[in-house]
Amino acid sequence: MRAQFVLSEIGVGLRRNLTMTFAVIVSVALSLALFGGALLMREQVSTMKDYWYDKVNVSIFLCNKTDASTSPKCAKGAVTKQQREQIQADLKKMDIVENVIHETAEEAFKHYKEQYGDTAIASVITPDQMQESIRVKLKDPEKYKVVATAFAGRDGIESVQDQRSILETLFNMMRSVNYAAVALMLLMLVIALMLIINTVRVSAFSRRRETGIMRLVGASSFYIQMPFIMEAAFSGLIGGAFACVLLVAGRYFLVDHGLNLAEQMPLVNFIGWDVVLAQLPLVIVIGLLMPSVAAFIALRKYLKV
After folding, report:
1. Which residues contact 234 (CB under 8 A, 6 or more apart)?
2. Is-contact 225 299, C-beta < 8 A?
3. Which CATH number fits domain 57-162: 3.30.70.3040, 3.10.129.10, 3.40.50.2300, 3.10.410.10?
4. Contacts of 199 (CB under 8 A, 6+ apart)
5. Which strands sit side by side in the sheet containing 58-62, from one edge to the other?
6. Which DSSP string do the residues of 185-223 spell out, in sequence order?
7. How far is 214 from 227, CA to CA, in rounded Å?
8. Which helix (H) or strand (E) holds 135?
9. How many helices (H) and strands (E) are present in the chain, helices listed first?
10. How far apart are CA 163 and CA 253, in angstroms?
11. pLDDT at 262
12. Rounded to 5 degrees, what are φ and ψ at 62?
């Protein structure tokens, strides 16, 4: 009987404040969708880092004849065979080095022609202008500075470059987008909480006579407050469900179909469905608890029982 009464009161409250309930659902859905999107963006950045950092190398570019006349670092001339072999030997002795690959100027020219053969500048580039290099695969890409410190400035070396720096611009941009999504999510969350509190206030005020009677007949505070809390929880649950639909639809239409980014951007390792689905329970739980807690706090202030 009590459960039936609580459910009937929930239905009455939702009907009386239908427009505000709808506003709460939309606000909760948008704020939680942004929250889920921020979580997925963070996972995407982490996935891309793991994927690309595992593939990037430290490149040690050796001096050639052209560098000897143009670069102060190669003032002593082009790299000699002895210098090259000593550099390779020293690299292989380092514990942080996983693999060392030597690329000759001819191989570098061949790769350049494969990638940029259709451009105008490719027609005037000659093999002797290309730099031979040593590609160093590190066990931990974060320890690039160890290699840079050990080999920068040595005879025969023109420069030491960490390919991670090429990716940092992309990762920084993705972090900025993530921060913007978090800021917008917080704004929407505040709006949703304000709407929930106002909805509870209006609902409590419209039913002040009923709650007064319930108080007179000995109903407990929790029993009186329960319908209001359940109304907010129900709205939040519906909003959380819509947020999950938005997240799934976003992954489906942006990556797999619609824009089909997975096919158009094959070099990007997008997060899988398992990552997306793993975030949905958290979104649902927050959607259920956030309005309930907000309603409970609002009732302590506005519902005098």
Report:
1. 10, 14
2. yes
3. 3.30.70.3040
4. 17, 20, 21, 24, 231, 232, 235
5. 97-103, 133-138, 58-62, 157-162
6. HHHHHHHHHHHHHHHHHHHHHHTHHHHHHHHHTT--HHH
7. 13
8. strand 133-138
9. 11, 4
10. 32
11. 64
12. -95, 155
Query: Would the pTM of this model clear 0.90, i.e. be above it?
Result: no
Q: pLDDT digit string (tens) for 111-153?
A: 767 666 555 555 667 666 777 888 888 877 777 778 878 888 8
Which tens digit of pLDDT belongs to each residue from 220-268?
666 667 777 887 888 888 889 999 999 999 888 888 776 667 677 666 6
Separation CA 28–CA 190 (nearest Å): 10
Range list for CATH 3.30.70.3040 in the chain: 57-162
Residue 124 main-chain phi, psi, to 5 deg: -110, -5
Q: Which residues pair with 135 in a beta bridge?
A: 59, 101
- C-beta separation of 284 from 244 below 8 A: yes
Distance between CA atoms of 18 and 8, rounded to whole angstroms? 15
